[in-house]
Amino acid sequence: MITGQLKSKIDKLWEEFWIGGIANPLTVIEQITFLMYARLLDMNESSDEKRSQRTGKPFKRRFNDDQQHLRWNQLIHIESADNLMITIRDGLFPYFKGSAASQEGSLFAEFMKDAQMMVQKPSLLVKAVEMVNDLPLDKSDTKGDLYEYLLSKLTTAGINGQFRTPRHIIRAMIDMMDPQATDRICDPACGTAGFLSTTYEFMMEKYSSEDGTLRTTVIDEKGAEVEQVLYTGDLLGEHRSHIDTDMFHGFDFDATMLRIAAMNLVMHGVSEPDIHYQDTLSQRFKERFPGEAADGFDLILANPPFKGSLDEDDVSPDILKKVKTKKTELLFIALILRMLKIGGRAAVIVPDGVLFGSSKAHQQLRTELLDNNQLEGILSLPSGVFKPYAGVSTAIIFFTKGGRTDNVWFYDLQADGFSLDDKRTPLKGEGSNDLPDAVAKWKQYRTLVETNASKKTIEKAFGDKHKKAFLISADDIRANKYDLSINHYKEVVYAEEVYEDPKDILKKLKALENDILNDLAELEKML
After folding, report:
1. How many angstroms separate the CA atoms of 49 and 56, rounded?
2. Deepest in the core among 67, 101, 219, 258, taking most CB within 10 A?
3. DSSP-derived 3-state class of residue 482
4. What average pLDDT does this structure show over 79-86?
5. How many CB atoms lie within 10 A of CB 151?
């Protein structure tokens, strides 16, 4: 949690960028990211210098002798705004690109190779440097929240169908999939890495003992004392290295998103996230399955683009074998099936059209999911979940690669804790949030399946189609041309309306007429 004072500083800097002529929120975050990374580089260099002094062991320097003036601790002491501008524009940014070229193949190379300085006003640069210098980048319990607050300012939809997935929806999906410490997890259209960073938070919470859970009190923006919880992940043990180097994998073909995604994971605590510039639908895409995990990923979490430009000639033939179409939402499902290992699981947000579209490609994909894989669940979302970015109706599909589907679990989510208009105001009270119930019902269902509960037991729990959570047999779905729309199967109870007898209504009207006539007669007598 970050304090109200820190939020105010970020808000003020945000306004300065707008006044300074940089109105695109992605560009603002990208420029702040460059400065934050410059400071982190110097912090890591200073840490290595101190360690080297204690141990006497040398280390690989990030800054040569003739580059010392580019270190953050030197930049912040440049008094002239014009000199600061010249040093950062003509020194620091070329250093980024030069270092990237000399470290080809590293995260740093992809992160900074196309870095461009967009700040044109020296006075704005001074304010940005001062603000970044005040950020608590040395506090691991704050860095992730800090970057999330920056990302929360992405209030406009991106191109090609990109928009920020609400974090409470992401967290619900992760809770339902329950990642393990040995999993290799991927998002093939990672954007700002919301799925991956939230999964990291989930892992730290899941693998923290009571002693490894630190609780402190902080003051929020309203001046009230609130508890802040820090999960140390002390139970991860030997899996810590796996989390830092091989658990999180993300791909995106937007260079700005790539940089922001990498910084987001670094700020959350992942030391070496595997984030790469790739169009995952392209035939040139090379999945990165190193070592023994060459057969695919254990878990894929994604909200792939629903629309946008597509070079049909460049789409991988392997994907087109599964589903021949130009629709990216269908191609991404086929891609995800390809990227999973046998037994690998996925939770993917799709537009409702995927569930009931009548085209050959739509039916081909649904047939693939049910007959050659295990389509396990569909969580129907209300249409306002992605406002103000988009009003499209969506659902989350849960599936496992391989096998064959026997039953599909459905959940009709009516409320997610926020109003379904553009304001998305937080709501409280009964019926305002179905997500906790959806997660609980899903876990109940998966427990019954994994413990081989009897058919009678499962039907008792999920056989009522009038309830929000219910089960439909795959055979019934096949009989309905593989239609997966929840409205096709959910049964609604209509309350019988009781109408008053017309004769009784006439009697009441007659009585009312008599009362009025009597009142008029009394009034005439008084006059």
Report:
1. 10
2. 258
3. coil
4. 95
5. 20
For the ranges 13-27, 76-90, 223-237, 366-380, which has the lowest average pLDDT?
Answer: 223-237
Could you tell me if residue 248 is left (phi over 0), alpha (psi between -120 and 50 degrees) or otherwise beta?
A: beta
pTM score, whole prediction = 0.83
d(CA 251, CA 287): 10
User: Can you tell me which residue has the tokens 């499902």?
Assistant: 333
H/E element, 526: helix 502-526
132's tokens: 């970044």
Residues in the chain: 527
> For residue 336, what are its two tokens?
């995800």
- Give the CA count within 13 Å in the CB-facing half-sphere of 380: 21
Residue located via tokens 């260099």: 45
248 touches 200 (CB < 8 A): yes
Tell me the pLDDT tens digit for each residue of 374-433: 999 999 999 888 877 777 889 999 999 999 999 999 999 999 999 988 888 889 988 899
Residues 6+ apart with CB under 8 A from 53: none
Residue with tokens 């006497």: 56
3-state helix, strand, coil in the chain (%, to 5): 50, 15, 35
Mean pLDDT of the region 162-176: 87
Token pair 């940005």: residue: 128
Nearest residue to 255 (alpha-carbon basis) of 78, 30, 463, 455: 30
- What CA–CA distance (Å, rounded) separates 206 from 130? 37
| Residue range 1-47, pLDDT digits in tens | 566 777 888 888 888 888 888 888 888 888 998 898 889 888 888 98
Residue 12 identity (one-letter amino acid): K
Cβ contacts of 465 within 8 Å, gap of 6 or more: 472, 489, 490, 491
Round the average pLDDT of the chain to a whole number and report it: 85
